[in-house]
C-alpha cells in the first residue's frame, strides 16, 4: 500500500471557542483526496488548567455533529504519551484539535521515486511564519 507523508497539527482555540469554521476546508481536502485524516482527538483545558482529552467517539452528539461531514479513518495513532505531551502546550482556557493526516497527493510521487530507484534524502516542514516573513522581506 502506498502511503504519503504523515504529519500532525495541534489547532488551538482560545476561550474554548471552537466554531467549526475550519471544517468545510477539512471536508474539501478529504473529499478531493489531498489529505486523509488518520486520527483526531480533542483537548479542553479550563481556566484552572484542568485538562480533558476526548476522542471523537467520546464527544457528545452536539460536539461531534460538525465532524460528521469530514471523511477520515480514525486509527488510534495518537498515543496517550503523545496526548500528555501535547496537553502541556495547551494554554489554560483553550480547546484544541489534534489531527493526524496523510498527504495523499504525495503517495504517487513517492511510488514514482521508488520505481525510479530513487531515494528521498530529506524532507522538512518549513513553518508558515518563516515562509511569510521571508516572502515579506522579498516584497512579495
Characterize this entry briefly.
It is built from 5 helices and 4 strands. The protein has helices at 23-31, 61-64, 80-87, 107-115, 128-137; strands at 6-14, 35-45, 51-55, 94-103. It is globular.
Question: How would you portray this structure in words?
Answer:
- 29% of the residues lie in helices and 25% in strands.
- With 140 residues, the chain is α+β, with helices and mostly antiparallel strands.
- The N and C termini lie far apart (40 Å).
- The relative contact order is 0.25.
Q: Radius of gyration, Cα only, in angstroms?
A: 17 Å
Distance between the termini: 40 Å
Count of runs of 4 or more consecutive helical residues: 5
Largest sheet: 4 strands, antiparallel
Structural class: alpha+beta
Task: Give the CA-based shape.
Answer: globular
Secondary-structure element string: EHEEHHEHH
Poorly predicted ranges: none
Instruction: Determine the fraction of residues in helical runs and give it as a percent range.
Output: 25-40%
Please state roughly what percent of the residues sit in beta strands, choosing from under 5%, 5-15%, 15-25%, 25-35%, 35-45% or over 45%: 25-35%
The largest sheet has its strands arranged as 1-4-2-3
Q: What attributes characterize this protein structure?
A:
140 residues; alpha+beta; globular; 4 strands
Amino acid at each position: 500500500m502506498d502511503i504519503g507523508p504523515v504529519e500532525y497539527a495541534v489547532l488551538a482555540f482560545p476561550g474554548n471557542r471552537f466554531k467549526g469554521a475550519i471544517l468545510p476546508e477539512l471536508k474539501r481536502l478529504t473529499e478531493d483526496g489531498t489529505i486523509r485524516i488518520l486520527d483526531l482527538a480533542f483537548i479542553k483545558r479550563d481556566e484552572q488548567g484542568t485538562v480533558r482529552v476526548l476522542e471523537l467517539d467520546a464527544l457528545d452528539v452536539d460536539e461531534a455533529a460538525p465532524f460528521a461531514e469530514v471523511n477520515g479513518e480514525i486509527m488510534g495513532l495518537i498515543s496517550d504519551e503523545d496526548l500528555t505531551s501535547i496537553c502541556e502546550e495547551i494554554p489554560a482556557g483553550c480547546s484544541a484539535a489534534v489531527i493526524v493526516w496523510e498527504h495523499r497527493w504525495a503517495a504517487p510521487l513517492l511510488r514514482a521515486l521508488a520505481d525510479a530507484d530513487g531515494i528521498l534524502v530529506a524532507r522538512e516542514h518549513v513553518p508558515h511564519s518563516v515562509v511569510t516573513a521571508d516572502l515579506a522581506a522579498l516584497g512579495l
